[in-house]
Amino acid sequence: MKAQSTVFSKARSKLPSKESPFMFLALAGIVMTMTFSAWNALLNNFAIENAAFTGAEIGSLQSIREIPGLLAFTAAFVLLILTEQVFAIIALSLLCIGVAITGFFPSVYGLYATTVLMSVGFHYYETINQSLSLQWFSKAEAPAQLGRLLAIKSFAALFTFAGIWLAFTVFEADYITVYMICGLLGLAITAWLATHKPEVSHVEVQHKKLILRKRYSLYYLLTFLSGARRQIFVVFAGFLMVEKFGYGVAEITTLFMLNHVINLYLGPKIGAWIGRVGERRALTIEYTGLIFVFVGYALVETAEVAAVLYVVDHLFFAMAIALKTYFQKIADPKDIAGSMGVSFSINHIAAVVIPVIFGLIWLHDPSLVFYAGAAIACLSLILSRFVPVNYAR
Questions:
Q1: The whole model's pTM is what?
Q2: How far apart are CA 368 and CA 2, in angstroms?
C-alpha cells in the first residue's frame, strides 16, 4: 500500500497544477479555440440567413476582421500599463463577449461591429499568447510544450464542432442560443483564469516598447511569407474544394474535423520531433512539402486527391512551431513581448492584401493562385537554409 501510494503521489506531481503556466495557456487556448471555432463555423449561414449578406459583404467582413491583426503592434503600448497576463485576460473577455452577442445583431453593420470586437480580442490574445509561451517555456521544452498545446486546441475545436452539430440537428437550437452558450462558457473559464494566474519568477522583465531589430530580419521575412501562404490556404484552398469539386457543408466540416483529429495525435509528436532535429531541418521539410502541395492544388482534377492535399497542407502548418522556437533561440529574452506584436502585424500584412489581389487573379486562372503559393514556399525554403544550426551569439 505504501508503494502504491508513492506511485500515485509521483503521478500527481507530474500533472500541471491549476496555477501552472502550462495550465493557464491550455485553458486560455481552449477558450480561444472554442469561441472562435463557433463564430467561424456559424458565420456564413448566419450572415446569409439572418443578415442577408452577399459576396460583397462577406469579403468586406473578412478584410475588416484582419485589421486588428495588422494593428497588433499596438500591444506594446498597452503593456506600458498592464501586465501580459492581465492583458491576455482582457483580450479573451473581449473575444468571448463579441461571440456571445453576435446573434443579437443580425444586420450588416451589426455583424461588422461584433466581428471587430471579437477580432480585437482574438488578435491581441494571440499576440500575448505567443509572447508568454516563449517566455514561460525553456528553449529545450518549448517545441514539445507547444505541440501539446496544439493538440489541446484541436480537441477543443472537435468538441465545439460536435456540440454545434448536436445543437442544430438534435436540439434545433437557434443562432442566438449557440453563440451565447459558447461566449458565456468561454467568459466563465476566463473569469476563473483571472483568479488563478500563475506566478512565474524566472521570466526576464520585458522591454516596454516596440522591438524591431536588424538581426531578426530573417525571422520577419519568414513570418511575412508564412502569413501569405496561410491566406492562400484559408481563403482559396477551401474555395477550390467548393467551386471546382462541389464539396458541401458536411464534406468541408468533415475535413475540418479530420485535420483536428490528426493534430490531436501528431501535434505533440511534431513538437518533440522539432526539438530533436532542429528548426532548420524542420522548416526545410515543411517548405519543401508545401511546394508540392501548392503545385498539386494547381493541377488536381479529382475531389479525393484535393481532399488529401487539404489535409496534408493543414498538417504542414503544425510544423510552424519551428518558426516560433527559432525566434525564441535568437532573441534577447527581454525582446519577446515587444517583438511579438511587430511580428504578428507583419504576418497580417498579407492577410489584408492577398485576398483582394489573388481574388482578381482567381477570376483569370485559379491555378495561378496556387503556383504563386508554390513560389512563395520556394522563397521560404531558400531563406530557411540561412537558419543557423546552433544559436551561439
A1: 0.84
A2: 68
